[in-house]
Amino acid sequence: MIPETAGSSQPLISNYQLELDSPPCKPGAATWSARASLDRNIDAVLPYLNAMLEGADYDHGAKILIWKKHGQSFAFRSREIKAAPARDREEAKSLIDRAVALANDTWRERELLKPLYEARPKANLMQIFRLLPRTNCGKCGCSTCMAFAAELLEGSTKLSCCPVLEQPDKGEDRSILQELLGSAE
To answer: Over the chain, what is the mean pLDDT?
Structure first.
């Protein structure tokens, strides 16, 4: 039974079966996708996760939330959590354990959160690129500003990696980028 009150010591997710899958779009890849089949339906926590996770992509009708952070991707569905990429079973278990803990912590604190049932507006690559300096200086670690824009959109880098955006005359562009990307950095 799902706990009814915040602060309950019973977790939302207590058991799962872990499986590793080869990425279907990358045969022979050195990384894996982890899938946890859950012991109960977690639909009720998805709007709370959506409210809490910056950059989450939530479809309330389809009951799926996708969240990307630091080059890792997590998909939360009714009775399943997927995470990728993982190099081996140990890393796969670690990713899934993190996702389960996130869902359990969010469920436990749900009375402190306002659920968000709507999808957030999504930024696109060109919107981000147009707000970058477009100098292709490489100081961010990417060879071009377009590559940096792609990494920002994916969530594998931060705005603070671009020193040009730190300049006072770039403050407005930086603020717009923070809003588009859903970040407070």
So the answer is: 88
